[in-house]
Task: structure prediction
Amino acid sequence: MPRNTKAISREDKRRLRHKRKENLEDLKKRVEEFDPVENSKITKFDELPLTQETLRGLGESGYVNLTDIQREAIPICLQGHDVLGAAKTGSGKTLSYLIPVLERLNYEKWSDMDGVGALIILPTRELAVQIYEVLLRIGKFSSLSAGLVIGGKDYKFEKERIGKVNILIGTPGRILQHLDESSTLNLDNLQTLVLDEADRILDMGFRQTIDSILNDIPPQRQTLLFSATQTKSVKDLARLSLVNPKYISTSTDQEATTPESLDQFCVTTQLSEKLDLLWSFIKAHINTKILVFVSSSKQVHFIYESFRKLRPGIQLLKLHGRQKQKARMETTQQFTHASHCCLFATDVVARGLDFPAIDWVIQLDCPEDVTTYIHRVGRSARFGRSGKSLLMLTPNEETPFLKKLGSRKIAVKKLNVKGSKKKSIHSQLQSLCFESPELKYLGQKAFISYCKSVFVQADKEVFDLSKLPLEEYAKSLGLPGTPKVKFMDRAREGKGMSEGEITKVKAKKNASRKVMNLAKTDENGEAMEEKRVRTKYDKMFERTNQNILSEHYMQMTHGKAGEYDDDDDDGDFLTVRRTVDDVDEKDLPPLELINTSKRAMKRATSRKLTAKMQDKGSKMVFDDAGKAHAVYELENEEDFQKQGPADELKEQFLSGEKANMHKEDAVDKSVAKEKRVEKKRRRKELERLAKEDEVSDEEAAYTVVLGHGSEDDEEPDLERDLALGEEEEREKDDENKEEERPSKRTKMVAEPQEEDGDGGEEGNVIEIEQPESIQDLEALTEKLINE
Ligand SMILES: Nc1ncnc2c1ncn2[C@@H]1O[C@H](COP(=O)(O)OP(=O)(O)OP(=O)(O)O)[C@@H](O)[C@H]1O
Result:
């Protein structure tokens, strides 16, 4: 926010200061006397008592007329009241709190010396970035400073500047990290606290973090809570110490909480036909902008990877909370600017994000509750524009979920899909999984994580895992068999998860994220990107990418392939991301910038290894006339016809291949099992040794941590991963929780991995959180030895 630096005399300065003071006093008086009832007809921002700087900022950003929530909320917020604001998605809640935040600090002539005067907390990084950008635009002529703190960004950079910021915007975890670690951040002077998407921020996933932040801010402040689905929970309000809060809502209880300009549809489909339906839908809407919600990041991975191999003819993108920050930002930008595009995402984008002109919001998986439904569909039909949404429900979900929507006055129209319009992609997915073990692996992960996402739901009326046709579902993903679902027995008994267990699951999920965040910062809290925890999935894809790098490079330079849409979150491969259409050689990044693993570098510089990697040539056979032929040549048509009808041949071939697939799968499984048994034996041995005090404390602890997947352990160990990864799978990507960060106040524990009660042999595996300090390490070691 630049200052006017034009040289003026001291006298002029004094006069200007005086004038400004007078104006501010006048404004304050106007605000105090502002009667919302009397002024209920005002329509424009310039009819409100606002500073010239803010009015200019608003005008330049194209904001002239007030929306309903802005007209009602801004004056009351300006008067300093605590406010609970509720209005439909896309109705302009952001300005309803940003303008008062700016103005109240302006009234107080806030300066750098006064420190942080306003704190704005948002549940996701993307949303924090978006709000920060709006603030920069409307506050362009203000002398206040603003700062953004979110996970995945340069912590040191933030830390150096945070002491000079007047308006601080961020995600809960990162804000708490700075409160814990940045000596310059002081919230003692805070005037206004804002929670955007307040109900989400106050829910279980963020509870601990928010409570810790609240401990650090003065109780005598203004608190503003905004959301399309506002909390009225007395408990929540008590936690925030609200004083006589004003409840401002622009719709009555009799109205739907979804925008009028949104056309809402639903379709009932078998679980095993969902992907067919989605594929057919995308193919039929390639000239639109589509956002597809699924319930976990594993499903996002699988659908994105398999659909892009099938080439639907529209650009595909993916976004979820497990991606690197750089990839997340890049995808957000791409989707924002695209006019025809399909984004597969988890609920990390369900709240608040303002993507322009989304034509369709598809919910492939039933949302957790009506609140989630409202926020998901609210990504379309924003600010009076038109939009459509399609909800896919399985036959079991249909009646209870539609009833719940009805009770919130949300009317959805039922659609019937004509059989002829739906194309089955089962056999394509089957072939893809057969050809690519990586994709099969992703499919298995997606399957388990979907099952888990259903199992963990408290609402058993809608979500009943035991009623789902899992065999058919596995087939529909192209999998050769049905992966084992460890908690199935409990699901069949109708046990589900108790509230306590769900809380534990959410806490555990946050904990695993803490480990990741810890790995990203050193003991000074500085960003250490390369120390990111790499999963087996990351390693597999990195290897795949190394091999296909040259192929992609050729495709790009020669403009051969239709669409280039590479995986981007698992390495710096994204440096070469682009579509081929307009590729110019000079625009391509220098190849040496591409970051590959040490092993790949070594291979590239070693002649022996390069020779080993080179094409070995292909085997040829010679006929009697001395003509060379490839070993596998296409038969001529006549010979082919002689063997019988093509359909029968195809069936024969497919059943043969299916049998092969089963065989291969059995081999994979037995190899994985052997490995698992061996690892278990090794681990037991180490535990025994540790007990006998034959290994040092530190060594024992370190070894068990590595047991989760060391750098050397490069082979995908599917069985073990599916078992150990179940916690991760549970990420039902409500990844907003991922913003939970390592707090110094959080106790680090090492505890046995939950196995959903079926007592499988992996039940003995010990999941360990990264120790934060030497004391943590000692406590951890002691615990391990005593296990
Ligand atoms: N007064 C206004 N004049 C013109 N455009 C506006 C105005 N207020 C908001 N908008 C635009 O409307 C869109 C939605 O606004 P905003 O993101 O604040 O909605 P929201 O109510 O916060 O939605 P959600 O509940 O999804 O978070 C944005 O693109 C914003 O720029």
Remarks:
- The pocket of adenosine-5'-triphosphate is lined by residues 63, 65-67, 70, 87, 89-95, 228, 352, 354, 378, 382-383 (CB under 6 Å).
- Residues 13-249 form a domain with the Rossmann fold fold (CATH 3.40.50.300).
- The first strand starts at residue 83 and ends at 86.
- The chain has five domains: 13-249, 262-491, 501-528, 532-562, 669-709+771-787.
